[in-house]
Amino acid sequence: MPLNQLLRHPDNCCANLDAWLNGVGGKALAIALNDPATLIPTIKAAGLRGLGGSGFPAYRKWQMVAAQHQFGKRYLICNGNEDEPGTFKDRLLLEESPHQVIEGALITALATHINHIIFYINPHLKRATEILSNAIAQWQQSDYLQQISKALVKELVLKIIPSPGHYIAGEETAAIEAVEGNFPFPRGKPPYPAVAGVHGKPTLVNNIETLANVSHIVRNGAAWFQSLGNGGCSGTKIYCVSGDVSTSGAYELPMGTSLKSLIFQHAGGISDNRKLKAVFTGGPSNSILTADELSLALDFDSLKQHNAALGTGAMIVVAEGNPVIPHIAKYLDFFAAASCGQCPPCTSGTREMAQLTRKIAVGNANKHDFDSLCSLSELLPSSGRCHLVDGAVTLLKSSLEHFPKEYQALINKPFS
Ligand SMILES: Cc1cc2nc3c(=O)[nH]c(=O)nc-3n(C[C@H](O)[C@H](O)[C@H](O)COP(=O)(O)O)c2cc1C
Ligand code: SF4
């Protein structure tokens, strides 16, 4: 059964602060104000992972920011750039339950001594931004922000900054550049944002879904959160299912739900009762899953063991009978357009891979083109400052591995 802990939960679903505070809201914030030192240990024990794609344990970044000794401002960027194909969970969270996200951010700030909270939101999410802005105004009229400022011994500032809206602007160091008013070029690391982020100050970047979990964990305890997940992983995950399924949508389920259960039980199965051919995971920047992998648990650790990745939890489904290569060409085009231009191998490599794959998809390629594509997939990994190029190559390599016959059938000159 769907859990609906974060989405569509009757106690969370309101844009009115009084209603939120009369329901479940405010209780976790009271605990946080009373004893902020317990917050990081609670988040650690709960096993909350970064839900923006990396799955990095949330407490480790929090701990790093909290440990900084510099005076002055510290920043939290609540990452709502959400531009990856097939991913729409952060928009839903902001539209359905903005106070849950804001309270999570306030508690995170208390745990890490942060006094500048920036909601960094994709400008295309107009309705979400409006709802969030309204919700922030309500908190600003309450006395909570004063209480937090008092606890932090510095003024707490909350603001919304529209992101540039491109995919690359969601990468954490690109987000820091954008918040400073610059073009979102990813930075080299180290220094890590926790040490020197916005204007050289300690900065924590967390995804909207990660933050949405925080108040529930603090209110209900680490053991409760652990018990929500299947197997070794804690909590729930909002899986966004789209493509050739009967019922596309966002499904909040236990972390570690199987691919089979997600597609066939929750998303109504493959459209027109066809068979499953492929699933692009995590947007499309990870390995492709196939019908042989239906029993896989969709969580960070299980997929990693299987050389795949959960990413954002987006699952884009392709039915048997539909070609996969046009999808690969479309996603490689997306990565090529998103490349920021700082690293020549990424910029020209993603463009070249996209052109070659498009040529293959329309039947205009020869064996030489195919060989060039294969050699690019070997040359490009780790050649960029950020993971964009690696995501593009992972997708391509996975398609070459799983669908060699589809490639062969499209090449003009038969393979020797
Ligand atoms: C190309 C690229 C785009 C990204 N876009 C987003 C995004 O839109 N939202 C997001 O939360 N994380 C995005 N990330 C991941 C962030 O760099 C970062 O890991 C994340 O915001 C940290 O939050 P979390 O620890 O709560 O997951 C992106 C990463 C890359 C490489
Ligand atoms: S890998 Fe690509 S997107 Fe990332 S910094 Fe380099 S050029 Fe920009």
Describe this structure in words.
- There is one protein chain.
- This protein is of the alpha/beta class and 416 residues long.
- The protein folds into 3 domains: 17-227, Rossmann fold (3-Layer(aba) Sandwich), CATH 3.40.50; 230-317, Roll (Ubiquitin-like (UB roll)), CATH 3.10.20; 325-410, de novo design (two linked rop proteins) (Up-down Bundle).
- The chain has helices at residues 17-22, 27-34, 39-46, 58-66, 89-96, 98-112, 126-141, 144-152, 172-179, 208-220, 222-228, 259-266, 300-305, 325-338, 344-361, 367-379, 388-402, 404-410, and strands spanning 75-80, 116-121, 157-162, 203-207, 236-243, 249-254, 276-281, 288-290, 314-319.
- A hairpin with a 5-residue loop joins strand 5 and strand 6.
- Iron/sulfur cluster is lined by residues 168, 186, 339-343, 346-347, 384-386, 388-389.
Topology:
Layout: H1 17-22, H2 27-34, H3 39-46, H4 58-66, E1 75-80, H5 89-96, H6 98-112, E2 116-121, H7 126-141, H8 144-152, E3 157-162, H9 172-179, E4 203-207, H10 208-220, H11 222-228, E5 236-243, E6 249-254, H12 259-266, E7 276-281, E8 288-290, H13 300-305, E9 314-319, H14 325-338, H15 344-361, H16 367-379, H17 388-402, H18 404-410
Parallel strand pairs: 1-2, 1-4, 2-3, 5-9
Antiparallel strand pairs: 5-6, 7-8, 7-9
Bound molecules: flavin mononucleotide and iron/sulfur cluster (SF4).
